[in-house]
Each structure stands twice: as C-alpha cells, then as structure tokens.
C-alpha cells in the first residue's frame, strides 16, 4: 500500500518511494502485454478516471 507524503516522516523516504514508483513504471512498460490498456490517472479525480474505464475496456 502506498503511503501519502503526510505519512512519510523520515528524510529521504519520499525520494525512496518516488524511485520505487519510477522503477515499477519501467517494469510495467517492459513487461506488460502489447494489448494492455492504460488509463491516465495523474492529476485526475476518481470520477474522471472511472468515466474512461468503460470505453477502454469495451
């Protein structure tokens, strides 16, 4: 489970979490099947993302 910045209290932990997130994103890019559908979530509300899911999944 990801922690929010407010929950990260030691110096360097945020940088560590960001590096882990970037590593996981690279792994997903490398290993996901070519027909994998992605829905952009950055900076969007849950409602906005949910509205895109039916179109993305058919």
What features would you highlight for this structure?
58 residues; mainly alpha; 2 helices
Describe the structure.
The protein has about 60 residues and is an all-alpha fold. Helices cover about 55% and strands about 0% of the residues. The two termini are about 30 Å apart. The model has no long low-confidence stretch (mean pLDDT about 85).
Structural class: mainly alpha
- Terminal residue distance: 29 Å
Low-pLDDT parts are none
Average pLDDT metric: 85
Strand content: under 5%
> What's the shape?
flat
SSE pattern: HH
The DSSP helix count reads: 2
Summarize the structure.
The chain is mainly α and 58 residues long. It is built from 2 helices and no strands.
Write the layout of secondary structure elements.
Layout: H1 13-31, H2 46-57
